[in-house]
Every structure is written in C-alpha cells, then in structure tokens.
Amino acid sequence: MSLKKIAEMTGVSVSTVSRVLNNKEYTCASPDLKDKIWAAAAEIHYVPNESARNLQRGSRLETPRPQKKLAVILGRFDSLKKDPFFAELFRSVEQEIFASGCVLSDFLSAADVQAKKLPTADGFIILGRSPEPMLSAIKQKTKNIIAIDRNPTDFQIDEVVCDGKEAAALAMDYLVGKKHEKIAYIGDCSLETRYVGYCDSLIRRRLPLDYSLVCPTDQTEASGYEAMKKLAANPSVSAVLCANDATALGALRALREARKTASIDLISIDNIQAAEEVSPLLTTVNIPKKDMGKMAVRLLLDRIAHGHTEIMRIEFQPRLIRRESC
Fold first, then answer.
1. Taking the model in full, what pTM does it have?
2. Which domains does the chain have, with CATH numbers?
3. Which candidate, 46, 64, 65, 216, has a CA 20 to 30 Å from the CA of 76?
C-alpha cells in the first residue's frame, strides 16, 4: 500500500518506486526522480520491509535482522526550516538510513538533548556544530556518534566534514582574483571556520581587515537581508562573502531592492537547490551534502558493528560553482 501511495505522489510506476527504495544502487532516468521518490517516502514515513526483501531474495527461512535505530540531532538550529542546507543534508541522511535497512527513530534539537530528552538509539547523527554540553550528554550514553559539519572538531567523535575554512578561502581567492579589495563578510563570527578563512585570506593577500565590513549574524535569510541593506549603503564595498546560501538569499533580495545586483559581487557557501533558482543565479562553493550524508550513515553503522574503534574523520573537498551573482 505504501509503495502504491508513493507511486501516486510521484507519478511513476509502483515497480520504479520499489526499485529505488529497495536497491540503493538503482539509477533513475531522471537525476531528480530518485530524490523525489525518497522525499515522498519520508513524507509518509515509509520504512523498507526487511522480511519482504528476504522473500524476494529467496531467503524464506532466514530470520530478519533487527533494524538499527538511528537518531538525528540538529546542532545549530531548532528547525530544518531555518537553513535549507540542513534540510537537504537531512534528506540525504534519511535516504541512506532507509536504504541501509535502518529506522530513523528520532529527530531532535540541541535543546532537546540538553533538556535530557535523549532517546534510546543504536547511534546518533549530529547535523552541524556540536555544542560541548550536548556532545558530553550524548557521549555519556554511547560512543556510536558521528557529526556532519563544516567545522571540524579536535577528533572527539567520528565526523564527516567539508572544511568551512577551505571553502571560504576558495571563495575569497576567486573574489581577489577579480581585483576586489573591499570584501565584506556576512555570517557567524564565533568559533566559525568560514570566518577564519575570510580573515586568513585577507591577511595572506595583504589586504586590510576592515571590521566595519564584517556583519555578525545568525546565518538566516532574514539576518542576511538586514546586513546587506547596511552594506549596500557603503560605497566602498565591491564584493561580499556570505557564510551560507541562506544568508546570501536574503542579501540578494536586499541588493535587488537597492538595484545594486550589478555593482556588488556576491558569493556564498553551500550550493543549495535555491541557489539555482534565484535571480541572479548564486555563485557559491559546493558542499557535497549528498555524499557526506551517505558516508556518515555508513561510517556510523561500521562503528556500531565494531568495524573500527579509533576516531575517524572523512573530509570532502569544496568546489567553486560560478554563476551570475559574481
């Protein structure tokens, strides 16, 4: 019944839905169709049936293995709606959890954990920065933890990262290569590797670090909009680095209202789907969310199975995506 419902929601056949959900290596004709099917499955809380899989393989007498329960914790925000990057990252994690025959048992915020609402699970996946009190609370319960972030830790837990400092340096090198000298920054400045990358790049290029061009924010679209309104009034600003695409979407809106999209170059970090839909198209640094989500689930399951005992870090490289905003 669930497969039929998903087929109706996505406009494809039941057999196509079954192939996608029961074979994680299956390739659809359309690259977006696979994501669409998994999104529909998540919407109706579909869980792959391991018993049915065994019957398809001919393993009628094989006792189904208990499904691992994995919980996801959102570290930086209290809702996925505040940053599309984490919504897309969560979708990748969720798809791999289901594809691996596991169950997404709980979705929590950092506040939930600190309020001692930590559920029983076989493993925990943290999306984004891990506040120390939250990390300590989870470590007291289990060693089966992995983080996915742009801010690497000092090897306290397993993690899959794409270093924000490198991403910011890549963006800054592009701006400086375009002869920009007065480059502003919008984003978090507290223990944030992207801000460190911004500052290091200016120092390395022997450009002045003008603190009047630094706008600390909570990295949401609303705060990006307000920060850009102030920067747009500064005639010396020729380029802006936004710490994430959500911030950049707000900044672009402010530039459009001020009619300055052609006079100020804007670049950001993440490469969310909306970056290809906004006008002008957003120049950004790609963080490989899909691959990071898949790898995190696989690495966590390896730790749960005692496949490794030492702390591991898997690092992905950022990549510049040139578009119209810069």
1. 0.81
2. 2-57 (1.10.260.40), 69-162+288-318 (3.40.50.2300), 164-286 (3.40.50.2300)
3. 46
